[in-house]
Amino acid sequence: MESPAENPSKAAEYLKELNKIIETQQELLEKQKRRIDELEQQVAKLYHENACLQDEHHRHLATCRLQQGVPPAPPGVLSAIQENARHEK
């Protein structure tokens, strides 16, 4: 059996196949980069949405406390409770 180095036409065909593989891999990498960008944008949007919802929730809790006549929790108490809950999970 001849090696590609011994047969120039087989070597050229082999190089064409390798180039096709490289091109396909580059296209795949580009698709993956675009998808990563899309996902990063989605994460940023969700992070912002989550922050807004948390703020809205805190305002709602404060309103409920005012309506019930309960004094508001000191700053940092709720975040300390949340932090403890995260560590317990």
TrEMBL record:
<protein>
    <recommendedName>
        <fullName>IQ motif and SEC7 domain-containing protein</fullName>
    </recommendedName>
</protein>
<keyword id="KW-0175">Coiled coil</keyword>
<feature type="coiled-coil region">
    <location>
        <begin position="11"/>
        <end position="56"/>
    </location>
</feature>
